[in-house]
Design a protein that fits this description.
The protein contains four helices and no strands. By secondary structure, it is mostly helical. It has a domain of 70 residues: Histone, subunit A (Orthogonal Bundle), CATH 1.10.20. Belongs to the histone H4 family. It is found in: Chromosome; Nucleus. It holds the Pfam family CENP-T_C.
Amino acid sequence: YKMAGHGKSGKGLGKSAAKRHRNKGPVGGDSALRGITKPSIRRLARRGGVKRISSRIYNESRAVLKNFLETIVRDAVTFCEHSRRKTVSALDVVYSLKRQGHTIYGFN
């Protein structure tokens, strides 16, 4: 495909439009869990009333959070597939949380 008025050369390398989104690398795996930073885990612990935190807690809390989210997302996707939809709704998440024993209100 050649552009009109540019002779034999095409668009070239430096003429492309600005890229709007930065590549965030591989999604999933442990790289996504690194986004749960040490200070954010610390803030959650402070909110829970914890005064002093062992260094081994951070990776353990990341693993627990990953496990919790995996079960919630799996159930939400199951609810979504059952009703023959492709988009997970907020109610799917509410129902999956209720199924795990964590009932929340205000999303209906």
